[in-house]
Amino acid sequence: MSTTTFATETTTTATTRSTKRTVSYVISGLVGLFLAVDSISHLLNVQTAQDWNEKYGAPEWFSYPLGISLGIALIVHLIPRTAVLGAVLITGYLGGAIAVNIYLDDQAVFGSVFAFAMAVLVWRGLWLRDDRVKALYTR
To answer: Is 78 within 8 Å of 32 (Cβ atoms)?
Structure first.
């Protein structure tokens, strides 16, 4: 192998890594933004949260723990050292959302598919930038 070939392969590999990292930040940023808005809307107890609570008989305070738990999970996910734990917590939160949507038959298909897609994107963004997550899939 010539020096030129080796240099080209190294440059291509570095460019691919850079592109994957950029894509991972875009995916994680968009998902994080959506989840942050969801968390804040629960914490501010916006009208849609109040309407949902009233429709299904949930207590008025119900949206606050949801906003707090999602906010904590999101913060843990955004810290690189604890990102995997955050992804697990967010997946659990979204799994609960799926279960509630199916149980209450409220947006059972759209709501569940959307929550599932969010969970997949959380892990996909993490997989692109974290070798620990890649190692889980390659063993």
So the answer is: yes
